[in-house]
Amino acid sequence: MLCLITPLQAQTYDYDPDNGEEINELCSGCHGEFGQGGKDGEYPRIASQPLEFIANQLRLFRDRKRKNFAMVEYIDDRQLPESDIYDISRYLSEITLKTQLAPVDENAPDFDAYARLLESKMTMQIPKAEGDIERGEKIYNKECDSCHGKEGWGNHKNAGPMLAGQYTNYLWRQVKQLRTKQRIHDEDSPNDELLNEFSDQDLTDIFAYLSVMDD
Ligand code: HEC
Ligand code: HEC
Q1: In a domain, 195, yes or no
Q2: DSSP character string of 143-191
Q3: Which domain range does residue 82 map to?
């Protein structure tokens, strides 16, 4: 796993948030203005992810090690030098999306519809997924939390993505790719077929637990 993260660690870039914001204008067409994702998981949530995870995925897309037809031309256009990868990854990782909309009275005289719209765009709520939450919690805490974080928000050290707050549909699509080795789950032991050791029922329960973690 370290081989993938080394370039970021070995070299430090001067962070240029304006460049990050500018690059995000390209990304937002699909992933939303705040990286919140959309279309029920056709576009994943990319904000609040560990910087290292975002950077790794961009390199994998760029080097054609992870397929992504939708993104190919954007990555080619700019050719994404390492400093750009750093700026956009850091920019996105520092966006914090709320998971709950504060209750308000829409009939109150000071209700600001525009502010409310903005707030709802920055709120990422995952509809509760079907499954046995308690069973999912047990499996998650035993088998997944070391790499995906206790609270499901990812792990900087091993560049593990957050799973809580990600669209359930999207997670299932990735499970297929990970099980068929179109994606490598753990760079440290690329031959581990981690998710093949779990049944669809196990994953259904894990995803049910993840979908309510932030409630
Ligand atoms: C034309 C639409 C489009 C644009 C523009 C786009 N993406 Fe994506 N992106 C996608 C799709 C679709 C996926 C999911 C691919 C899959 O299902 O495996 C994705 C996946 C990702 C992922 C992987 C997330 C995960 O959890 O696995 C990252 C990171 C990402 N995009 C970052 C970016 C960044 C940064 C930009 C701007 C430079 C960008 N994308 C621009 C469509 C787009
Ligand atoms: C040894 C560490 C490790 C363990 C244990 C682990 N994962 Fe992962 N997982 C990762 C890493 C690292 C990635 C990102 C892979 C990449 O860079 O493409 C990942 C990616 C994923 C993804 C794709 C998410 C996305 O946004 O692209 C899913 C889904 C997933 N893991 C589910 C699980 C589940 C469920 C468990 C427990 C049964 C689990 N993982 C256990 C390290 C781990």
Answers
A1: yes
A2: HTHHHH-TTSS-BTTTTBPP-TTS-HHHHHHHHHHHHTTSS-S-TTSTT
A3: 2-93
Mean of the per-residue pLDDT values of the chain: 88
Q: How many domains does the chain have?
A: 2
Evaluate whether residue 66 is within a structural domain: yes
Structure tokens at 87: 């700026």
Give the pTM. 0.91
What pLDDT, on a 0 to 100 scale, did the predictor assign at position 11? 65
CA of 185 to the centre of ligand 2 (A): 6
**d(CA 66, ligand 1 centre) in Å:** 11
Is residue 169 lining ligand 1, measured as CB closer than 6 Å? no
Mutation pick for ligand 2 pocket among 51, 63, 148, 167 (CB with most ligand atoms within 8 Å)? 148
CATH of the domain at 70: 1.10.760.10
Ligand 1 pocket mutation, candidates 23, 46, 76, criterion most atoms within 8 A of CB: 46
Are both 84 and 166 inside the same structural domain?
A: no
Considering the domain boundaries, does residue 168 fall inside one? yes
Please name the amino acid found at residue 42.
E
Q: What is the pLDDT of residues 120-167, one digit of tens each?
A: 777 777 788 999 999 999 999 999 999 999 999 999 888 999 999 899
